[in-house]
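Batch manifest line 603
LIGAND: adenosine-5'-diphosphate
JOB: complex structure
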Amino acid sequence: MDARRRPAKPLDGPVHPRSKQHRADVGVAGDASSLKASDALPLPLYLTNAVFFTLFFSVVYYLLSRWREKIRTSTPLHLVTPAEMAAIVAFVASFIYLVGFFGVDFVQSLILRPAGDVWTADDEDDDVVVAGADHDKILLKEDSRSSPCGQALDCAPVVQKPKLVDPVVQDAPKEKVIEAVPSAMPEEDEEIIKSVVEGKMPSYSLEAKLGDCKRAAAIRREALQRITGKSLSGLPLEGFDYESILGQCCEMPVGYVQIPVGIAGPLLLDGREYSVPMATTEGCLVASTNRGCKAIFVSGGATSVLLRDGMTRAPIVRFATAKRAADLKFFVENPANFESLAVIFNRSSRFARLQSIKCAIAGKNLYMRFSCSTGDAMGMNMVSKGVQNVLDFLQSDFPDMDVLGISGNFCADKKPAAVNWIEGRGKSVVCEAIIKGDVVRKVLKTSVEALVELNMLKNLTGSAMAGALGGFNAHASNIVAAIFIATGQDPAQNVESSHCITMMEALNDGKDLHVSVTMPSIEVGTVGGGTQLASQSACLNLLGVKGANKELAGANSRLLATVVSGAVLAAELSLMSAIAAGQLVRSHMKYNRSSKDVTKVSS
Ligand code: ADP
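JOB STATUS: finished
ARTIFACT:
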């Protein structure tokens, strides 16, 4: 949760009277930092301290002298007079006061905190604005020790100190200016860090030189902090397998970002139940999708159909004349030549199977859109290799062909493009459900009529008015992005994978609702890329689609695409209902009845 929105509610456990947490708990307004626990005492703080100091040393002196006297007169020590008893009680009381007041923080700081107190800079900056229902906003200092959990994982002690800055900069309210000072690193690493900082050793070469990816990441991270003067203390380093990303997922790592994973479901799809993992930081999204799953479940489930499965790549080649470009177009589109081209193409992988080549000409330039099945891989590498094979082959028959690029954007990868919307890319899926009128009312809190009308005016007409390209839906990209991140897909392919038209029609004389989502270009895989990383792999495992399908190549990735469409169906239902019910919410508000705002999910 955004720290700035975190309510200042009491945390569990004891609260030290001098802590900032305590000040927040007691609801201090105004300049909280100027208030002290001593405000609650009958005497000023210095007087209370003086009393207890005097008491402590007086009773210690008295008890010691009594002790010496008893030893001298051979009196048994356990025989205590009422005066001695009172002195012992006063000793214990004053001891507890002094340790409680001065000792605990000091002792804890020695035992628990790293040298140089890493919290100092944060303490000054973590202002939290808390607004109560009928109260003015109050400014509190959030205890900076409630930092992200990942910080605890990060063992590298990074010491921060307030930077000396221009007063103008200092006035900027949000910017947290801190300076990282060198951390204690193993001695043998210090030399390497220095070389990286001085530019003698390239940061990118650390993995190759050290043969230890974790150590390379730690050194790069430390060098980066020293070069930039910026702390990375909130970005965890520990708890990640850096070997697993080498040469495949990410170069020059310095840590990893944490994203919470929520579960929506069960999603009843094609007779099976799925718990759908969604990695997101958007509040309400998982809850909203979950509500849609419930509506689908109690209505008997959703059904999906995979319409097509083919990854595409379109190189651009140039000729001296448009006539020559057209010659090649007719050659590759001639069914008589398809078999020989497919044999060449399919050599790229035992999973790549050429399906079609569609061409577009712009003057003397030719774009050939190759489409092929790719098994359980999303398939970009596979299709690119196949295309390269074919280009090499064509070069002998068309020596005047000038290959400008393996990708000419007619593919089209990671850009909004009508070609994907119309022809499809990756998996094309349609998913539908019939939601009973009762469920629409009780679970979705709206009516069939309101949903059908809103869908027509928002998702169809509104999107047409906006000149949308594949965006005839309420928020498909929310769900696609969350599932993509959780399952290790390429998040950039969310662009075309979120193309979706949502349809809603009344059935059975307006009693029930038919809802569908048609998504022509869902690009997913269950092998390769980020899918093999531990967390992402666990999410795929949860869905039962981890890795390559042993019986039928491609079955896992196709199933994943249908789950994406099913989750989108659920989320569309829920958000559309929330918006449709907005009329109701408004009229409830009008009559002064509280109503939870369920329309927070962006649309
Ligand atoms: P992409 O083409 O999606 O970028 P990669 O080429 O990185 O994916 O990963 C696919 C790799 O996985 C290929 O080397 C392929 O031979 C291998 N592989 C193993 N099993 C399968 C499978 N069932 N489907 C697709 N590829 C598979």
